[in-house]
């Protein structure tokens, strides 16, 4: 598990990027926390810089829309899903379970 940030540092509607291989984007969607690969599957763009609406993030480059719960794109130009990661909140801190993948908080 890697540390993303404190819950207080990620208000609803916001995101944070956790650098690593791969980089991970963590979102606060109305009090629910989600983590996905930060790089859009269509082209190299940071999803943490996208627009959050409910449980969906819009890529800032070509407007592909991804479901934060599944990682699946819901419209073109993206056709491939991004990986999702389990999120754990403990003692006011958000952790991402990378399944043993290397990441740097």
UniProtKB/TrEMBL annotation:
User: SUPFAM superfamilies in the record, alphabetically?
Assistant: ISP domain
Q: Which organism is it from?
A: Lentzea kristufekii
- CDD domains recorded for this chain? Rieske_RO_ferredoxin (cd03528)
Q: Which GO terms describe its molecular function?
A: 3-phenylpropionate dioxygenase activity
Q: Which UniProt keywords apply?
A: 2Fe-2S, Dioxygenase, Iron, Iron-sulfur, Metal-binding, Oxidoreductase
Protein name as annotated: Bifunctional 3-phenylpropionate/cinnamic acid dioxygenase ferredoxin subunit
Spans through the membrane: none
Domain named Rieske: which ranges? 2-96
- Pfam families, per database record: Rieske
């Amino acid at each position: 598990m890697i540390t993303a940030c404190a819950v207080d540092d990620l208000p609803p509607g916001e995101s944070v990027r956790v650098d690593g291989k791969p980089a991970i984007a963590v979102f606060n969607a109305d009090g629910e926390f989600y983590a996905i690969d930060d790089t859009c599957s269509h082209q190299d763009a940071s999803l943490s810089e996208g627009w959050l609406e409910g449980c969906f993030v819009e890529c800032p480059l070509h407007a592909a829309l991804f479901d934060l719960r599944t990682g699946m794109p819901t419209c073109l130009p993206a056709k491939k899903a991004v990986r999702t990661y389990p999120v754990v909140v403990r003692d006011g801190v958000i952790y991402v379970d990378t399944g043993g993948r290397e990441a740097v908080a």
